[in-house]
Amino acid sequence: MAKIGFIGLGIMGSPMAVNLVRAGHTVTGWNRSPEKTAPLVEAGGSAAATIADAVRDADIVITMVPASPQVEAVAYGPDGILENARPGALLIDHSSITPQTSVDLAETARDHGVRVLDAPVSGGEAGAVEGVLSIMVGGDKGDFDAARPVLEAMGTTIVHCGPHGSGQTVKAANQLIVAVNLEACAEAVTFLEKSGVDLKAALEVLNGGLAGSAVLTRKMENFLLHEYRPGFKVDLHHKDMGIVTEAARTVGAVLPVGAVAAQQIAAARAQGWGELDHSVLLRGVQRLSGDASA
After folding, report:
1. What is the dihedral of CA 149, 51, 162, 96, to 10 degrees?
2. Is 171 assigned a catalytic role?
3. Domain named 3-hydroxyisobutyrate dehydrogenase-like NAD-binding: which ranges (predicted)?
4. Contact criterion met (CB below 8 Å) for 61 and 55
5. Which residue among 36, 171, 219, 239 is the active-site one?
6. How far apart are CA 222 and CA 282, in angstroms?
């Protein structure tokens, strides 16, 4: 069992840290908003007052924060992870950030004697709670093998994708697929509702065939109830689509359908829905279809 310092206890990080405790690991957590450490403490973990306190004695440090600037904020500087983690510690970053940020972090950490894996996840809040996340990992294969028992407390599909930055590249592709799938589902739901068919029956049969997907399974209740409690926020998916766009431009990949999905997510954010679940794309399509009350 490992001693783990866990940085970032939000919608995803909190249940992930709790699952680590349940698996028998010793977990000390830190969050910018201290009240969010409560679920971890209730599960048997500990809360730290500072990042330094959380990571000082840890074998493994895990970060789960929103974006590249937040990763850099918690990793660098005199109060950050790299200055306070012990030499030989393994830093596993589950945040979704740019591949280059992950590469830069690994190179800087090496000077501090800290090993790094970029290990973004997919599965949303439900996957984090259930411990069934998909985890795509970049970094040294030996470090991946060493981290696997810890990762297995949080996920069920755990794959080493290549060197540093590879996990983030695969996550960017994941977010592209999810965005396009969400937009397709939103358009299909709008079409079905306007056609007057039984929406629940229609979605059930569609999800049993080739049109079925994890997105439709996870978001079906959102579509049926038109409720968008955040499991994965529009703001975060908007950030991720920026990563996709930048990375695709760098390698020369053209993403015509992805560009449309990215614009729909940007439009949802512009409508003030940034804190809602990304399935709120349905509301955007409904409004485009003339339903002003959506």
Report:
1. 110
2. yes
3. 165-283
4. yes
5. 171
6. 9
